[in-house]
Amino acid sequence: MKPKYFLLVLFFMLNAAICLAQETRVIEPAELEITFSTKEYAFWDTYTFRCGKNVSQYFSISELQHQKMLADDDPALFILWDKRLADYDEPDPAKRLPASTGNLDKIYRNLEQGKFTTYSTVMGTHYLITEDVVIPEWTMYEDSTITVLGMECKKATTNFRGRYWEVWYAEDIPISKVLGSCAACRA
Predict the structure, then answer these.
(1) How much is the pLDDT for 178?
(2) Given CB 3.0 to 4.6 Å as the disulfide criterion, which of 36, 43, 53, 106 pairs with 119?
(3) Shortest CA distance to 100 belongs to which of 54, 44, 37, 181?
(4) Which pLDDT belongs to residue 27?
């Protein structure tokens, strides 16, 4: 067997072994789930933000599906890879498969522990980043309101970690500390 093919086969065997070592578990049910799509340059992807009583989660849906197919050794994954390569020549972004806009991280916020946990992969190397939860100080604008999906929303702003944030929130949504959770959302 040629050396480069041997290394390729070895790479896939090691990847399969790593995937089999993973386990999943339910942390807590979500009380609120927001799913949205975003487009950056020629790429688009769909993300989900889930918020429970003590834990929030943020991730790319297409990356989650990709990881599940890889773990299950699904042969359709190779078809998707071929389609993704062909998509680079597709001028219409709407006809392309979802492809990450650059954020493949899985972010968890645990209020009981007061920690953010980020699972990240950079060039095939996996990282686990844990940091303290820092709640931004919001400026609330009680007199600035809009109606979204029949709910009255109020404006709040903050400067947090080098970015200016402007959000509209509904007091009718029964989730405590949602504005603090928005800092975890990279929308």
Answers:
(1) 46
(2) 106
(3) 44
(4) 73
The pair of structure tokens assigned to 54 is 């003590």
Looking at the fold, whether 36 and 128 belong to one and the same domain comes out as: yes
Domain that holds residue 76: 26-133
Note whether residue 11 is domain-resident: no
Quick one: three-class SS letters along the chain? CCHHHHHHHHHHHHHHHHHHCCCCCCCCCCCEEEEEEEEECCEEEEEEEEECCCEEEEEEHHHHHHHHHHHCCCCHHHHHHHHHHHHCCCCCHHHCCCCCCCCCCEEEEECCCCEEEEEEEECCEEEEEEEECCCCCCEEEEEEEEEECCEEEEEEEEEECCEEEEEEEECCCCCCCHHHHHCCCCC
List of the chain residues with pLDDT < 50: 6-7, 10, 14, 16-21, 177-187
Does residue 177 share a domain with residue 164?
Answer: yes
Among 93, 116, 133, the domain boundary falls at 133
